[in-house]
Design a protein that fits this description.
Elements (H helix, E strand, L loop, with lengths): L4 H11 L7 E3 L17 E7 L10 E7 L8 E3 L3 E4 L3 E9 L3 E3 L7 E2 L2 E7 L5 E6 L9 E7 L5 E9 L2 E2 L3 E2 L7 E4 L37 E6 L18 E9 L7
Antiparallel strand pairs: 1-7, 2-3, 4-5, 5-12, 6-11, 6-17, 7-8, 9-10, 9-12, 12-13, 12-14, 15-16, 16-17
C-alpha cells in the first residue's frame, strides 16, 4: 500500500506510543469511464489512367498513402517538459488524482485535494485543476491555448492535507517526480506498473497488455509522483499516479470554430 513520508512519521509515532489518526497514501481504486484516443490508420487513394481500359491496353496506376501524424513531428518531448516545434493548439485534460488519506490501519481511505499546474513559456505556473479524484472528468478540457515554437510547456503539482500543502514538485524541481511520455513509452517505475497492485483504475485504459503507454498519436501523458521522492524510487508506492494529465495537440488549421 502506498504511503507518503507523513505515513512513515505516523508509524514512528505509533512505535513510540503516540497515536495519530491518519496516514497519507497515494492509491485507491475508483472506476472512471473514459475514451481512449487510438491512433488512426493510414489512408490513401488509387487511380487508373485511362479509367476505361480496352482489351490489350495496360493502364497507368497511381496511388498515394497518407500516414497518421505523430506528436513527435510537432513537439519535442523530453523527460519532464514539452517544446513545440511549430505553432499548435494544446488541450489539457485531467485523467486522475490519486492521493488519498487513510487511517493508520489502511481503512477508511478518502481522496485528498490535489492541485495541477501548467507553465507555458516565460509565464509562471498556474493552477488548472484543484480537487479530489471524484471531481475529475477526463472528458473536460481544463486548459487550452495556442502555443508557439520555443514556448516550453512544463507541469507541477501538490496535495493539500491537514490544513497544509504537501511537497511541491514541478518540471524544474531537479527531480523525477514529473514525467512526460508518448504512445509506446514504458512508465519509468522500477516495477511493471500495469501489473502492480497499486495500479489506479483510471490509468488502466492508457496502458496496453505489455505495460506500454496507449494514447493517441497526437497525445502526451503527464505522470506526477507527489508523495514520494527520488530516494524512494524503489518503493512500490512510487508509481507516478498522484496526478495524471493528458495533453492533446492540434494543428492551427484544425482549431474548431467557436
Amino acid at each position: 500500500m502506498k504511503t507518503s513520508r507523513s505515513a512513515a512519521l505516523a508509524a514512528v509515532l505509533l512505535a513510540t506510543g503516540v497515536s495519530t489518526p491518519c496516514a497519507l497514501l497515494a492509491q485507491t481504486t475508483v472506476t472512471v469511464t473514459t475514451t481512449v484516443t487510438e491512433p488512426s490508420t493510414p489512408v490513401g487513394s488509387l487511380s487508373a489512367t485511362p479509367r476505361m481500359v480496352q482489351p490489350g491496353v495496360k493502364p497507368m496506376l497511381n496511388w498515394s498513402i497518407t500516414y497518421p501524424s505523430i506528436v513527435q513531428d510537432y513537439v519535442k518531448v523530453t523527460k519532464n517538459q514539452i517544446d513545440p516545434l511549430t505553432d499548435m493548439y494544446m488541450d489539457v485534460r485531467v485523467l486522475g488524482a490519486g492521493v488519498t488519506v487513510a487511517n493508520t490501519n489502511g481503512s477508511n481511505m478518502q481522496f485528498v485535494p490535489t492541485r495541477a499546474e501548467i507553465k507555458t513559456g516565460s509565464s509562471g505556473y498556474q493552477q488548472i485543476f484543484y480537487g479530489t479524484n471524484p471531481q475529475v472528468n477526463p472528458a473536460t478540457i481544463v486548459f487550452t491555448k495556442k502555443v508557439v515554437t520555443g514556448e516550453t510547456i512544463r507541469f507541477g503539482g501538490k496535495y493539500y492535507y491537514n490544513k497544509q500543502w504537501g511537497p511541491y514538485f514541478n518540471s524544474q524541481s531537479g527531480t523525477n517526480n514529473v514525467r512526460t511520455l508518448v504512445n509506446g513509452d514504458i512508465p519509468p517505475t522500477t516495477y511493471p506498473l500495469h501489473t502492480a497492485p497499486t495500479l489506479e483504475s483510471f490509468i488502466r485504459p492508457y496502458l496496453d497488455a505489455s505495460g506500454k503507454v496507449k494514447i493517441g498519436p497526437m497525445d502526451v501523458i503527464v505522470f506526477m509522483e507527489l508523495t514520494h521522492t527520488d530516494a524512494q524510487i524503489n518503493d512500490q508506492g512510487y508509481d507516478l499516479q498522484d496526478m495524471v494529465l493528458l495533453v492533446t495537440f492540434r494543428t492551427v488549421t484544425t482549431q474548431p470554430k467557436p
